[in-house]
């Protein structure tokens, strides 16, 4: 990997131009603040280039003014120069961020940053007689309160005023060398990925591993997006994990770890790929098109050198979270909430609007040995009373996860108004801290020795623009766990939506529903309008409600791996993403499985995997009793449990449940039926009807509850109270429009899968059977290593385990039936905890076995082992040392080129 970043040779930081059009003898010197030789205590801020045209310098001083930024310019001639400074009075009511400019040894009289105007503006710094030659220029901060300076212009042209209009301003920047005049061509690349969050980094790495020459363009100095060291959100994904479920597989397994370490681990991951060129501190600014439906190149700006770049490519992947590439290319996109009438989603608002979830800034505090005083600046918001905070929004002292509730921007435009949203979040944080330190009766004493040590200036965004693909995923696809034929990734976070007013909303900060394992189709990951554009992360083709579930970062990362891999297949098959869907979707799915990803219930059927046809046997097999965790086929009635379904009406005569009793005597069970306003809403507390039934001794089968009630079409839920010794079976596959839940003291918890039920009359509920567990004696059989599934499913271990009573080593063997040639073996263990630590691969040699490869101190769930090409009719995996309840879920065998 080659790294192209701010470490490139520093460019000249000023440019003098003579003979601007029509003013033959004038001299103009243009200085970009962020290119100052020494930025002192100022911070580089490049988050809002799209909105205000450039990176700029920001003065963040929690303890007062920051140190001067200094540079030198070369004035081409002596003369009377007018100084123009582009700055922003970010809160005209208070003008918090003020600074001065020092030219040589003279301080310019005007104080900048208090022009009382909205938005960015050029301020007139007056006339200055300056000699020719070197001039030192300083930015001298006066407050530490987020003063900001974009550029300075010194001109002898009395008629020149730098433009405010962004188009003209960009033209002048180019003309005067504020950015490079030349656009440097890079590529051509097979794949150009824009945005280096988890989605983008995984997309680029997957694409590079598929043999594509790949560029990854990231506008921050670090990788990780919201998981980066700048924002520090902890990546989440599938929270519906069943016993022995290893969690998400694939690239995430190489970087999963501490929350603070993602930027570093992602950098190492990218740096290890020879086909990947990483461009940090590089902001994509536009696209060049080839006809109406093809992107030819992405244009970008290196924010610390101001070099303009052009990335030519074949496939483009938008992982900006803002859908920036797609919008520039002219695709159909959405920003806001769809009306309920559009998809009939239970959590969509009645009327659609442009509202979204907001953004958040994080901050840190530290405990000091001595008291630390804090005086709130006048621009901070005031929260004199604890009641000024909404539910769950009252501040705490320690750095902690609760900070996500400091959310703002959902009623603004999270793209266009990004800078104002950031600024409002600053006002909230400083105000909350003032409350904790100076006003809060609960915290004031404890807070005495605490100091506010860090307030991030980089906004973590939750929602922005979503690009429309050939399919728009909706809440129904989450709730019903649609098993798309073109599924290429999955998630399991639940629909987690926040009110657009965020911090200022009087209700709870977030509401969850539908916590189930769901699939994501490939059709939601490419644009319907642009033939060579795919996307992953926040900007995929989902409704606002579905985004509530797909937006968490590991889930976004899996989408990234899917589209990066798809880019490789597009290259190999010389096709577009839509062409891939039509002809090669199976190839993409099989490649993802081969690379360790999980696609719900999709088995390995890779024709190149020699293990699939082999016969498996083992030195010993663990008895079924070795399983310590429950399988999910049956749930004991240790909690109230419920199933929700849609009844057609006009009547339910009876409902049957598939129950299992451990008792030697008959057991009475009483069922309640309640109405539900919508799928997933378990708020009703009154039974419309109750019916009792007797579960016979040692019963395993259907039990009927005679409800005999007239019902209107709609959702209902049937529930059972706790009954010791009785269990309720799950369906093998949940019927559509159903949900199950269990209740703790406070509330119902919606869960994946579905409890068995049958209605009489059946209405439109399809007949389904209870989940059949495979015969118990096969639970740890050798044949599990090549049955197509590389992990536990519904708690069924799906692994070979040796008899724990037998001494090590133990082995499992694949017999191919004839000599075959191979050089690569993939081994997937039960989980990272339940793995083999030391193991070897053997093939027969005469009457003995020869080791072809051995692994020591293994710490991973999945290993790909390469060795010299070997011809043999059998292969043995010999386990020498284990950790946890070691199981081998899958062995794949390949002859790789
Ligand atoms: C406060 C908060 C708490 C959250 N809590 C969680 C949580 O606990 N767990 C979880 O998993 N998720 C959480 N989320 C959601 C999650 O962080 C986002 O949905 C997620 O980051 C989406 O990943 P992404 O890769 O699409 O986007 P991002 O992480 O935003 O990455 C996109 C990257 O692209 C870059 N970029 C944008 N435009 C350009 C451009 N023009 N040129 C170059 N680069 C560009 C951005 O700077 C950014 O680095 C939270 C979000 C927030 C804001």
If you consult CATH, what is the topology of the largest domain?
FAD/NAD(P)-binding domain
CA-to-CA gap between the ends? Answer: 23 Å
Bound molecules: flavin-adenine dinucleotide
Radius of gyration using CA atoms only: 31 Å
Based on the coordinates given, report the CATH architecture of the largest domain.
Answer: 3-Layer(bba) Sandwich
Shape from CA axes?
A: globular
Backbone structural class = alpha+beta
Number of domains: 5
Oligomer: single chain
CATH C-level class of the largest domain is Alpha Beta
- Which range best describes the helical content: under 10%, 10-25%, 25-40%, 40-55%, 55-70% or over 70%? 10-25%
Q: What can be said about the biggest beta sheet?
A: 8 strands, mixed
Outline the low-pLDDT stretches.
Answer: 1-24
The CATH superfamily of the largest domain turns out to be: FAD/NAD(P)-binding domain
Number of E-state strands:
47
| Helix run count | 13
**Could you tell me the strand content as a percent range?**
35-45%
Q: Mean of residue pLDDT?
A: 92
């Amino acid at each position: 990997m080659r790294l192209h970043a701010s470490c490139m040779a520093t460019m000249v930081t000023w440019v003098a131009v003579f003979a601007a059009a029509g003013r033959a003898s004038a001299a103009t010197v243009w200085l970009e603040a962020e290119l100052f030789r020494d930025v002192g205590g100022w911070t580089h801020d490049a988050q809002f280039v799209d909105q205000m045209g450039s990176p700029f310098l920001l003065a963040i001083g929690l303890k007062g003014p920051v140190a001067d930024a200094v540079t030198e310019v070369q004035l081409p001639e002596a003369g009377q120069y007018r100084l123009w400074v582009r700055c922003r009075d970010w809160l005209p009511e208070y003008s918090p961020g003020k600074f001065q400019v020092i030219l040589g040894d003279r301080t310019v009289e005007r104080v900048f940053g208090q022009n009382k105007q909205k938005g960015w503006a050029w301020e007139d710094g007056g006339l200055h007689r300056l000699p020719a030659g070197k001039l030192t220029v300083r930015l001298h901060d006066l407050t530490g309160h987020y003063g900001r300076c974009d550029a300075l212009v010194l001109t002898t042209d009395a008629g020149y005023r730098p433009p405010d209009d962004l188009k003209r301003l960009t033209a002048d920047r180019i003309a005067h060398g504020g950015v490079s005049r030349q656009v440097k061509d890079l590529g051509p690349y097979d794949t150009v990925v824009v945005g280096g969050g988890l989605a983008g980094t995984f997309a680029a790495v997957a694409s590079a591993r598929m043999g594509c020459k790949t560029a990854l363009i990231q506008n921050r100095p670090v990788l990780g997006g919201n998981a980066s060291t700048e924002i520090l959100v902890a990546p989440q994904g599938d929270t519906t994990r069943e016993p022995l479920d290893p969690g998400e597989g694939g690239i995430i397994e190489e970087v999963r770890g501490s929350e603070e370490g993602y930027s570093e681990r992602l950098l190492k991951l990218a740096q290890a790929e020879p086909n990947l060129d990483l461009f940090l501190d590089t902001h994509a600014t536009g696209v060049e098109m080839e006809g109406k439906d093809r992107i030819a190149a992405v244009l970008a700006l290196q924010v610390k050198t101001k070099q303009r770049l052009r990335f030519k490519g074949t496939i483009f992947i938008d992982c900006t979270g803002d859908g920036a590439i797609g919008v520039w290319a002219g695709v159909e996109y959405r920003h806001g909430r769809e009306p309920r009438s559009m998809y009939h989603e239970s959590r969509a608002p009645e009327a659609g609007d442009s509202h979204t979830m907001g953004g958040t800034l994080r901050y840190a505090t530290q405990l000091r040995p001595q008291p630390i005083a804090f005086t709130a600046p006048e621009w901070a918001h005031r929260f004199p009373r604890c009641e000024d905070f909404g539910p769950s929004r009252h501040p705490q002292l320690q750095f902690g996860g609760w900070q996500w509730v400091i959310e703002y921007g959902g009623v603004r435009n999270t793209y266009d108004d990004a800078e104002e949203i950031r600024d409002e979040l600053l006002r909230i944080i400083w105000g909350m801290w003032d409350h904790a330190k100076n006003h809060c009766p609960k915290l004031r004493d404890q807070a005495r020795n605490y100091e506010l040590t860090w307030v991030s200036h980089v906004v973590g965004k939750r929602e922005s623009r979503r690009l429309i693909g050939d399919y728009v995923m909706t809440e129904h696809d989450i709730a019903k766990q649609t098993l798309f034929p073109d599924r290429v990734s999955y998630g399991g976070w639940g629909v987690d939506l926040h009110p657009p007013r965020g911090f200022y909303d009087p209700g709870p900060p977030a509401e969850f529903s539908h916590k189930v394992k769901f699939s994501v189709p490939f059709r939601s990951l490419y644009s319907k309008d642009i033939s060579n554009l795919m996307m992953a992360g926040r900007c995929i083709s989902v409704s606002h409600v579905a985004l509530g579930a797909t937006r968490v970062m590991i889930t976004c990362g899996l989408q990234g791996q899917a589209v990066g891999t798809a880019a490789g297949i597009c290259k190999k098959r010389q096709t577009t993403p839509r062409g891939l869907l039509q002809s090669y979707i199976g190839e993409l799915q099989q490649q993802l499985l081969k690379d360790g990803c999980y696609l719900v219930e999709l088995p390995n059927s890779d024709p190149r995997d020699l293990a699939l046809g082999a016969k498996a046997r083992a030195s010993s097999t663990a008895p079924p009793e070795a399983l310590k965790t429950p399988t999910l086929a049956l749930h004991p009635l240790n909690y109230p449990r419920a199933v929700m379904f849609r009844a057609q009406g006009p009547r339910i005569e009876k409902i049957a449940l598939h129950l299992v009793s451990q008792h030697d005597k008959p057991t009475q069970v009483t069922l309640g039926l309640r109405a539900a306003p919508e799928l997933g809403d378990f708020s009703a507390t009154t039974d419309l009807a109750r019916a009792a039934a007797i579960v016979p001794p040692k019963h395993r089968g259907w039990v009927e509850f005679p409800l005999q009630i007239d019902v209107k079409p709609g959702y209902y839920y049937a529930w059972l109270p706790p009954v010791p010794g009785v269990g309720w079976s799950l369906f093998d596959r949940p019927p559509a429009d159903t949900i199950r839940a269990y209740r703790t003291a406070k509330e119902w918890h919606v869960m994946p899968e579905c409890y068995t039920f049958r209605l009489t009359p059946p209405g439109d509920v399809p007949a389904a059977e209870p989940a059949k567990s495979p015969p118990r004696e096969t639970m740890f059989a050798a044949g599990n290593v090549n049955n197509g599934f590389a992990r536990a499913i519904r708690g069924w271990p799906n692994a070979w385990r040796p008899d724990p009573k037998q001494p090590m080593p133990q082995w499992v063997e694949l017999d191919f039936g004839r000599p075959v040639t191979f050089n690569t073996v993939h081994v997937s263990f039960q989980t990272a905890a339940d793995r083999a630590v030391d193991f070897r691969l053997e093939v027969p040699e005469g009457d003995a076995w020869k080791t072809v490869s051995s692994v020591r101190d293994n710490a991973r769930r999945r290993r790909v082992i390469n060795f010299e090409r070997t011809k043999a009719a059998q292969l043995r995996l010999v386990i020498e040392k284990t950790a946890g309840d070691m199981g081998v879920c899958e062995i794949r065998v390949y002859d790789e080129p």
